[in-house]
Amino acid sequence: MRPFIYERVNTVADALHAGALRESPPGSAAEATPEFLAGGTTLIDLMKLDVMRPARVVDINALGRTAVGHITESPNGLRLGALARMSDAASHPVVRRNYPMVAQSLELAASAQLRNMATLAGNVLQRTRCSYFRDVSYSNCNKRIPGSGCAALEGVNRQHAVLGTSGNCIATYPGDFAQALIALDAQVELSSPEGAHLIPFASLHRAPGDTPHIETILSPGELITAFELPGGAWMRRSVYLKIRDRDSYEFALASAAVALDLEHGAVRAARIALGGVATVPWRAREAEAALVGQPFDQAAAEAAADVAFGAAKVREHNAFKVALGKRTLVRALQQAAAMEV
To answer: Which tens digit of pLDDT belongs to each residue from 171-209?
Structure first.
């Protein structure tokens, strides 16, 4: 790990001020902004690997004692403070009762120890598990070194994405919680020196395109302070299903976040997000549209799954993800439809 300046802040205003500073990391002529430290379960890991080299680390954990760390219910839905711990959100009675998909996505992520440390905002901003990104001995990774190429394209790409890819990057977005947020039309509260504002969670992450190293729309020093989930009784009919190589502490090969609004066996509304198969949190809107107005049955679920993966682009080792992703989505839809709400 390289030398860095460590700073603690106690207010959002102080965090924004510290986060906007620009300085050159030791041994680099390039200017960089500081990195915020909360749970540290991603940042410290990548600093140890020499993938991230911040000159300054700003510890924002003290903000967890404010609204930024609280979970509150309102008549319009639920507000999840950005610094709430994953384990606290997963066990919260309102989350478990009204948003089972959210609780499941958090419970199936990482280990119990990490969930006790990791924050909600840190979780959605976690970086890819692509081995070519995380191993600095590979010089051709456009996420780590813009313009250097993508070793995964012709390398070992079993874990890589089949949706949302580009000729510059096929790295998979690794998170689980984000699939639930994007499926439920969550909003993100962003704080900056100009004030706080809300954006759709679906706008937060950027597909790789020609700039894989720019992963979100966040400006330097901008801070996520909360997530807001809309209310709705039908969101209780929701499921997060995760398929992985082993049954614990493993990232998804394919996952599906599904919520269904059913009336007399027909689909009035559907929400579908896919994980483990895309470069960003992935909303399958075409698949949702294919279900609406249809009686729900096996055939309808399979047709929606075909639509969800219609634009998939496979590589040598990850072609199996299309079939696996379809089966995962069908199974999640069936589980949601069978729920008693």
So the answer is: 999 999 999 999 999 999 999 999 999 999 999 999 999
Q: How far apart are CA 312 and CA 278, in angstroms?
A: 9
Residue 49 tokens, joined: 């690997």
Taking alpha carbons only, the member of 108, 130, 158 closest to residue 332 is 108
- 292, amino acid identity: V
Q: What is the pLDDT of residue 1?
A: 80
The two tokens of residue 48 are 């140890």
- pLDDT at res. 84: 98
Burial pattern 256-295, b for ≥16 Cβ within 10 A else e, equals bbbbbbbeeeebeebbbbbbbbbbbbbbbeebbebbeebe
Q: SS3 sequence, 193-250?
A: CCEEEEEEHHHCECCCCCCCCCCECCCCCCEEEEEEEECCHHHHCEEEEEECCCCCCC
User: Tokens for 282?
Assistant: 């992935």
Edge to edge, the sheet with strand 238-243 lists 238-243, 254-263, 266-275, 282-283
- For residue 187, what is the DSSP state? E
Residue whose tokens read 């009784």:
233
Residues 160-169 have pLDDT tens digits of: 999 999 999 9
User: Encoding tokens for residue 337?
Assistant: 């439809």
Closest CA to 157 of 253, 259, 46, 282: 253
Tracing tokens 């020499």 back to the chain, one arrives at: 50
Q: Can you say how many angstroms the Cα of residue 185 is from the centroid of all Cα atoms in its chain?
A: 13
